[in-house]
Fold:
Amino acid sequence: MIALDVRSIDSVRSALANLAEEQMPYAMMTAINSTAFKVKDALQAEMTSVFDRPTPWLVRQVAIAKATKQNLSAVVGTPEGIKDMYGNNTGFSRFTSSGAYEQIIAPHVEGGSRLLRSAEKRLNKIGVLPPGWFAVPAPDTPLDQYGNLSGAWWIQLLSWLNAMTWSSQGAAQNRAEKTSKRKNQLERKGIQVFAVAPWGEGRARNRHLYPGVYLRQDKGGMYAIDAILLFVPKVIYRARFDWRGVAERTAQAELPDAMAAAVQRAIETAR
Structure:
């Protein structure tokens, strides 16, 4: 019988040490990151499937914090969540500290109501939209290609209702000019904007109108009044985006093969 002990062969010991200390961590990092990108792709595909025309911006909110050889863990989430892991400030926009997940995605994952959008907070601040209520497009409101009221429309409506706020860098006169300019875009078309609150003075004058934001337009001596936003006491979403399930199933399906391939390459390239 012949006993072989590779521990006594310096070249073999060196190769094994290099494999354990250098090649294997790199192989694991590669496999984990490859799987993370597969998870990202699966979540984005699911998002385009369950949402009605999601904006490219929303689809891009699925982000990755990649693994390194020192930290063999990748994270797939939204940018503000990943930033928060590392102690950075988070932000959905300059108007709110809520992120893309909490603001848009979470209601479709967990069900229930959503958070107020920044425009709704502005309407709430001026007393038009009551606390806990939401502003939704009226049935005949012109929507953009993604099924939303465009940002340009929001700015014009908020300007008319004196709900816009501007950077502290501008003087009061400058802010007034900006607001007036946006109002004039509608005024040149003979359109005026007014709001009907669920109660209060605006409601008393327009009892026949449902609470919301309306356009008043002179059409040949006759005034036409069209709703563009309606105020509703609640917005409830059903859980339809299986974020965790899609991520877990994809990782479980992809990681074993990715790990096997990465380890094989590590062995083949070990010196």
In short: Strands lie at 63-65, 75-77, 134-137, 191-196, 212-219, 222-232.
